[in-house]
Amino acid sequence: DAGVTQSPTHLIKTRGQHVTLRCSPISGHKSVSWYQQVLGQGPQFIFQYYEKEERGRGNFPDRFSARQFPNYSSELNVNALLLGDSALYLCASTLSPGEETQYFGPGTRLLVL
Amino acid sequence: GENVEQHPSTLSVQEGDSAVIKCTYSDSASNYFPWYKQELGKGPQLIIDIRSNVGEKKDQRIAVTLNKTAKHFSLHITETQPEDSAVYFCAALSTGTASKLTFGTGTRLQVTL
After folding, report:
1. For a pLDDT cut of 90, what percent of chain A falls above it?
2. CB atoms A101 and B34 under 8 Å
3. A107: Cβ–Cβ under 8 A, 6 or more apart, which residues?
4. Which residues of A touch B105 (CB under 8 A)?
Protein backbone atom coordinates (compact mmCIF):
# COMPACT_ATOMS: atom_id res chain seq x y z
CA ASP A 1 0.00 0.00 0.00
CA ALA A 2 1.26 3.45 -0.85
CA GLY A 3 1.78 5.73 2.09
CA VAL A 4 1.55 9.49 2.09
CA THR A 5 3.37 10.95 -0.90
CA GLN A 6 4.72 14.47 -1.24
CA SER A 7 6.27 16.42 -4.07
CA PRO A 8 8.74 17.79 -4.76
CA THR A 9 11.30 16.24 -2.39
CA HIS A 10 13.55 19.30 -2.43
CA LEU A 11 13.09 22.87 -3.53
CA ILE A 12 15.26 25.99 -3.60
CA LYS A 13 13.63 29.42 -3.82
CA THR A 14 14.70 33.01 -3.28
CA ARG A 15 13.18 35.52 -0.90
CA GLY A 16 9.92 37.01 -2.13
CA GLN A 17 9.01 34.11 -4.36
CA HIS A 18 6.08 31.81 -3.78
CA VAL A 19 6.00 28.04 -3.56
CA THR A 20 3.44 25.25 -3.94
CA LEU A 21 3.90 21.92 -2.24
CA ARG A 22 1.77 18.86 -2.92
CA CYS A 23 0.53 15.95 -0.88
CA SER A 24 -1.45 12.80 -1.60
CA PRO A 25 -2.89 11.05 1.46
CA ILE A 26 -3.10 7.33 2.09
CA SER A 27 -5.83 5.76 -0.01
CA GLY A 28 -9.13 6.05 1.84
CA HIS A 29 -7.93 8.85 4.11
CA LYS A 30 -9.96 12.03 3.79
CA SER A 31 -8.14 14.44 6.08
CA VAL A 32 -4.77 16.08 5.50
CA SER A 33 -2.70 18.14 7.90
CA TRP A 34 0.38 20.22 7.17
CA TYR A 35 3.29 20.70 9.57
CA GLN A 36 6.47 22.77 9.39
CA GLN A 37 9.65 21.31 10.87
CA VAL A 38 12.54 23.69 11.30
CA LEU A 39 15.94 22.05 11.66
CA GLY A 40 16.48 20.71 15.16
CA GLN A 41 12.87 21.14 16.28
CA GLY A 42 9.67 19.15 16.34
CA PRO A 43 7.01 19.63 13.68
CA GLN A 44 4.59 22.54 14.15
CA PHE A 45 0.96 22.39 13.04
CA ILE A 46 0.01 24.67 10.15
CA PHE A 47 -3.40 23.46 8.88
CA GLN A 48 -5.85 20.61 8.83
CA TYR A 49 -8.24 20.03 5.93
CA TYR A 50 -11.20 17.72 5.65
CA GLU A 51 -13.68 17.49 2.82
CA LYS A 52 -12.02 20.51 1.18
CA GLU A 53 -12.60 22.71 4.20
CA GLU A 54 -10.07 24.12 6.64
CA ARG A 55 -10.72 22.60 10.05
CA GLY A 56 -7.98 24.34 11.99
CA ARG A 57 -5.01 26.61 11.64
CA GLY A 58 -1.85 27.01 13.68
CA ASN A 59 0.02 30.19 14.48
CA PHE A 60 1.21 30.95 10.96
CA PRO A 61 0.79 34.18 8.94
CA ASP A 62 -1.65 34.62 6.09
CA ARG A 63 1.22 34.05 3.64
CA PHE A 64 0.53 30.38 4.27
CA SER A 65 -2.55 28.94 2.60
CA ALA A 66 -3.74 25.53 1.53
CA ARG A 67 -6.50 23.76 -0.24
CA GLN A 68 -7.82 20.24 -0.61
CA PHE A 69 -9.13 18.72 -3.80
CA PRO A 70 -12.06 16.33 -4.40
CA ASN A 71 -9.61 13.38 -4.51
CA TYR A 72 -8.43 14.48 -1.00
CA SER A 73 -4.96 15.52 -2.18
CA SER A 74 -3.78 18.87 -0.93
CA GLU A 75 -1.56 21.82 -1.81
CA LEU A 76 0.28 24.11 0.57
CA ASN A 77 1.08 27.56 -0.79
CA VAL A 78 3.50 30.02 0.74
CA ASN A 79 3.76 33.55 -0.64
CA ALA A 80 6.45 36.19 -0.21
CA LEU A 81 8.98 33.67 1.05
CA LEU A 82 11.28 34.64 3.92
CA LEU A 83 14.58 33.07 4.90
CA GLY A 84 12.84 31.74 8.01
CA ASP A 85 10.49 29.68 5.88
CA SER A 86 13.34 27.28 5.17
CA ALA A 87 12.19 24.01 6.69
CA LEU A 88 10.92 20.50 6.08
CA TYR A 89 7.21 20.65 5.25
CA LEU A 90 5.37 17.54 6.28
CA CYS A 91 1.97 16.28 5.27
CA ALA A 92 0.05 13.91 7.52
CA SER A 93 -3.04 11.93 6.62
CA THR A 94 -5.86 10.59 8.76
CA LEU A 95 -9.10 8.83 7.97
CA SER A 96 -11.07 11.79 9.27
CA PRO A 97 -10.49 14.69 11.67
CA GLY A 98 -11.86 12.65 14.54
CA GLU A 99 -9.33 9.89 14.01
CA GLU A 100 -6.31 10.24 16.22
CA THR A 101 -3.57 8.47 14.29
CA GLN A 102 -1.68 10.66 11.84
CA TYR A 103 0.68 9.16 9.26
CA PHE A 104 3.38 11.38 7.86
CA GLY A 105 4.87 11.62 4.42
CA PRO A 106 8.59 12.03 3.69
CA GLY A 107 8.31 15.79 3.51
CA THR A 108 9.46 18.52 1.13
CA ARG A 109 12.66 20.26 2.11
CA LEU A 110 12.44 23.95 1.21
CA LEU A 111 15.48 26.18 1.19
CA VAL A 112 14.96 29.91 0.82
CA LEU A 113 18.03 31.90 -0.21
CA GLY B 1 -2.60 25.89 24.09
CA GLU B 2 -0.82 22.61 24.63
CA ASN B 3 2.88 22.59 25.49
CA VAL B 4 5.02 19.43 25.39
CA GLU B 5 8.45 19.20 26.95
CA GLN B 6 10.83 16.34 26.16
CA HIS B 7 14.02 15.13 27.86
CA PRO B 8 16.80 14.37 27.29
CA SER B 9 17.72 16.12 24.05
CA THR B 10 20.46 13.56 23.38
CA LEU B 11 20.93 10.04 24.66
CA SER B 12 23.78 7.66 24.02
CA VAL B 13 23.50 4.02 25.06
CA GLN B 14 25.43 0.88 24.34
CA GLU B 15 23.87 -1.82 22.22
CA GLY B 16 21.71 -4.06 24.36
CA ASP B 17 21.07 -1.42 27.03
CA SER B 18 17.71 0.25 27.65
CA ALA B 19 16.76 3.80 26.69
CA VAL B 20 14.12 5.97 28.34
CA ILE B 21 12.73 9.24 26.99
CA LYS B 22 10.36 11.35 29.07
CA CYS B 23 7.74 13.92 28.14
CA THR B 24 5.36 16.17 30.01
CA TYR B 25 2.29 17.95 28.67
CA SER B 26 0.24 20.85 29.91
CA ASP B 27 -3.32 20.43 28.61
CA SER B 28 -5.33 17.99 30.71
CA ALA B 29 -7.81 17.66 27.82
CA SER B 30 -5.19 15.93 25.63
CA ASN B 31 -6.07 12.25 25.37
CA TYR B 32 -3.80 10.69 22.76
CA PHE B 33 -0.01 10.47 22.91
CA PRO B 34 1.95 9.08 19.94
CA TRP B 35 5.67 8.56 19.61
CA TYR B 36 7.45 9.04 16.30
CA LYS B 37 10.86 7.96 15.08
CA GLN B 38 12.54 10.16 12.48
CA GLU B 39 15.57 9.00 10.56
CA LEU B 40 17.78 11.38 8.63
CA GLY B 41 16.07 12.71 5.53
CA LYS B 42 12.76 11.01 6.29
CA GLY B 43 9.39 11.92 7.71
CA PRO B 44 8.32 10.91 11.23
CA GLN B 45 7.27 7.27 11.54
CA LEU B 46 4.70 6.29 14.16
CA ILE B 47 6.18 3.63 16.42
CA ILE B 48 3.72 3.40 19.29
CA ASP B 49 0.86 5.38 20.81
CA ILE B 50 -1.20 5.41 23.98
CA ARG B 51 -4.62 6.72 24.85
CA SER B 52 -5.58 8.38 28.09
CA ASN B 53 -7.66 5.46 29.33
CA VAL B 54 -4.59 3.19 29.32
CA GLY B 55 -1.59 3.34 31.65
CA GLU B 56 0.87 1.24 29.72
CA LYS B 57 1.26 -0.29 26.27
CA LYS B 58 3.95 -2.60 24.94
CA ASP B 59 4.99 -3.68 21.46
CA GLN B 60 7.96 -6.05 21.43
CA ARG B 61 10.99 -4.01 22.59
CA ILE B 62 9.06 -0.74 22.86
CA ALA B 63 6.77 0.33 25.67
CA VAL B 64 5.03 3.55 26.61
CA THR B 65 3.68 4.55 30.00
CA LEU B 66 1.25 7.34 30.82
CA ASN B 67 0.57 9.08 34.12
CA LYS B 68 -2.43 11.34 33.51
CA THR B 69 -2.41 12.78 37.00
CA ALA B 70 1.16 13.98 36.67
CA LYS B 71 0.80 14.65 32.92
CA HIS B 72 3.86 12.53 32.17
CA PHE B 73 4.44 9.90 29.51
CA SER B 74 7.57 7.96 28.69
CA LEU B 75 9.04 5.78 25.95
CA HIS B 76 11.07 2.74 26.94
CA ILE B 77 13.22 0.84 24.43
CA THR B 78 14.83 -2.37 25.66
CA GLU B 79 17.68 -4.34 24.12
CA THR B 80 18.63 -1.41 21.92
CA GLN B 81 20.11 -2.06 18.50
CA PRO B 82 22.13 0.20 16.16
CA GLU B 83 19.06 0.58 13.92
CA ASP B 84 17.26 2.24 16.83
CA SER B 85 19.55 5.25 16.34
CA ALA B 86 17.33 8.15 15.24
CA VAL B 87 15.50 11.20 16.58
CA TYR B 88 12.43 10.37 18.65
CA PHE B 89 9.52 12.76 19.14
CA CYS B 90 6.68 12.59 21.61
CA ALA B 91 3.44 14.38 20.87
CA ALA B 92 0.08 15.16 22.41
CA LEU B 93 -3.15 15.46 20.48
CA SER B 94 -5.55 18.35 21.04
CA THR B 95 -8.99 17.95 19.57
CA GLY B 96 -11.58 20.55 18.75
CA THR B 97 -12.46 21.60 15.24
CA ALA B 98 -9.07 20.18 14.23
CA SER B 99 -6.93 17.33 15.50
CA LYS B 100 -3.64 19.02 16.18
CA LEU B 101 -0.46 17.29 17.31
CA THR B 102 1.89 19.28 19.53
CA PHE B 103 5.38 17.82 19.44
CA GLY B 104 8.25 17.79 21.89
CA THR B 105 11.65 19.05 20.79
CA GLY B 106 13.01 15.58 20.07
CA THR B 107 15.61 13.21 21.51
CA ARG B 108 18.56 12.13 19.42
CA LEU B 109 19.28 8.51 20.39
CA GLN B 110 22.66 7.06 19.51
CA VAL B 111 23.17 3.33 20.02
CA THR B 112 26.85 2.46 20.04
CA LEU B 113 28.39 -0.95 19.46
Report:
1. 88
2. yes
3. A6, A9, A37, A88, A89, A90, A91, B42, B43
4. 41-42
